[in-house]
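Our collaborator T.R. sent over the components below with a one-line note: 'Predict the complex.' Nothing else. No constraints on interfaces, no templates requested, no preferences about which chain binds where. So this is a plain run: every listed entity goes in together, and whatever single assembly comes back becomes the starting point for the next discussion.
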Amino acid sequence: MESKENASIAWITGATSGIGKACATKFAKAGWDLIITGRRLERLIDLQKELQNNYSVNVIPLSFDVRNANEVETALGNLPAPTILINNAGLSRGLDPLAQSLLSDMDEMIDTNLKGLAYVSRIAAQKMIPHKRGHILHVGSIAGIDPYANGTVYCATKAGVDALTQALRMELLDKGIKVSVIHPGMVETEFSEVRFHGDTQRAANVYQGVNPLTPEEVADVIYYIIQQPAHVVLSEVVMLSANQAGARMIHRNH
Ligand code: NDP
Ligand code: 8X3
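Returned assembly:
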């Protein structure tokens, strides 16, 4: 990455799709240099080219699995401190009672949404602390503050993200580092396709008649959170479609 005077650098995890990809575009448009991450390297490289060509910013793609602490350390450990971290990589697997859930689905959600998120924020915090500046933003979910049946483990991981965010904010309070969480409701991304293991019809049904949020709308709010004056932190933001009043209280127009 070429060094620019006072360049602002954003690390964005989960940038190959959905909310993370929309954040990468939003921040590149605003002139931020980016570290974009995800497992699908081809998608990262395509996005890198697109953003560098369109917005003349520096973009570094880093492909690694957030579940693997060694991969996270190898990828991010030698980088300079980011100005901000958008810790967004995450997923849901299955929509079943706990008694019928697959162990592999449960492990994947816990390892990605909770352990992976913690690995990445740990490194970002280590790097930001000596500079006494920075902003760590976690992508939680309405599922973390309004749990629902058949989503036990996903909801628990997102409740964990909420708790982790609050505790981290306390730890970093006297260190000049802001910590925020955004809890979106339904956003139309690849999320449901991943949840239903590639069943695109079942995934499409989730958003029928809802007018869900778009990833670009969520990215706009994330940008707003980051742009607040130095003495202001939007610590927790809940963002829903106007057709949604809770995780499972949804008005469908048919
Ligand atoms: P997408 O499936 O579109 O994007 C998920 C992103 O996470 C991808 O870039 C994926 O990259 C990355 N990711 C998943 N697992 C890993 C892993 N093990 N290592 C590295 N990267 C990983 O979904 P969304 O954009 O909707 O999801 C983004 C976040 O928003 C998630 O944390 C999700 O829980 C949260 N959320 C989503 C809502 C929704 O309705 N869509 C609502 C509320 C919160 P790759 O596969 O290339 O590794
Ligand atoms: C994703 C939103 O309601 O499907 O976090 O859990 S929900």
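Summary for T.R.: The radius of gyration is 18 Å.
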